[in-house]
Amino acid sequence: MRLRIATPSRRAGILGALALATTAATVVVAGTAPAQAARSDECRDRGRSLFCETFEDLPPGEAAGDDWGVDTRDGSLTVVEGQGRDGQVLAVHTEGNGHAFLEVEDFTAPRNSFYGRMWVRVEAFPTAPDWAHFTLVETSGEGDGSLVRPIGGQYVDEEFLNDAPSGSFWGVGSDGGPTGDWTDWRESVPAESGRWTCLEWQQDARDNRVRVWIDGAPQHDLTVTTTQHGGNQVDFVFPRFDTVRIGWQLYQADPTPSSYDLQIDDVALATKRLGCRS
């Protein structure tokens, strides 16, 4: 199912209202529940905000935003009270290899470069089949057909880890373009379930660079560039971004577990890094 919300954008109204008030920013330790009243409004700053959604202004139930759409197949998006986190969040559910995404269309970023930030709690990552891979953020647009997946990962069996335990690991990926279908997972960055995690990324068109931070810490192993990536040995080149999708997709059939649940909060796209303030 694909639903595109056609109501007028409310971003300008929200920004105007927020300009009349300030909120003290509170640094949040990963996994804790921040006070709703202390959430930072940095992501709504007129000087750098490209998109922001806290889910606080939406009615509980089936998700619908004024300036974003919904794209699902064997999945759903609902607005619920957060688990271990104050206020409302976006609950994502998928069955098998389905998908469910919040979709920001008609997206533009100065010089085709931007930062992203979101809080995520994944209840369980895949444990089968081997090489099961998943995406939480996918960006696309006009170009050579490349889909850029700055936040995602892959399940890797211990057979390929020098007898280290099997697990899911974060990795930057792509598909559809000359570099092919790849997820550049890193054993140094395991994906942890059952806890709130702050995920940040940068997409810098100057050298087609993707950088990732987890809970505020840079993950240098996850950086990819024009010539440093996990695909075919040709240049990795960004499209002219016009769509950002945030949610969950697993690509392999008959995975274990057979369904996936996660919660997402405080999504922001901006011209400068926002950090893990919430």
Structure commentary:
With 278 residues, the protein is mainly β. It has 1 helix and 15 strands, in the order βαββββββββββββββ. It has a 15-stranded antiparallel sheet that branches. The two termini are 31 Å apart. The model is unreliable at 1-38 (pLDDT under 50).
What would a concise description of this structure say?
The chain is mainly β and 278 residues long. It is built from one helix and 15 strands; from the N terminus they run βαββββββββββββββ.
Tally the helices: 1
State the secondary-structure class.
Answer: mainly beta
Query: How would a crystallographer describe the biggest sheet?
Result: 15 strands, antiparallel
Low-confidence runs of at least 5 consecutive residues = 1-38
Please report which band the strand proportion falls in: under 5%, 5-15%, 15-25%, 25-35%, 35-45% or over 45%.
over 45%
- Termini gap: 31 Å
Mean pLDDT: 87
Amount of helix: under 10%
Radius of gyration (CA) equals 18 Å
Secondary-structure element pattern, one letter each? EHEEEEEEEEEEEEEE
Number of strands: 15
Shape field: globular
Question: What brief labels describe this structure?
Answer:
278 residues, mainly beta, 15-stranded antiparallel β-sheet
How are the SSEs ordered, and which strands pair?
Elements: E1 2-3, H1 11-18, E2 49-53, E3 61-62, E4 69-81, E5 88-104, E6 114-122, E7 133-142, E8 147-156, E9 167-175, E10 182-190, E11 196-204, E12 209-214, E13 217-218, E14 240-250, E15 259-270
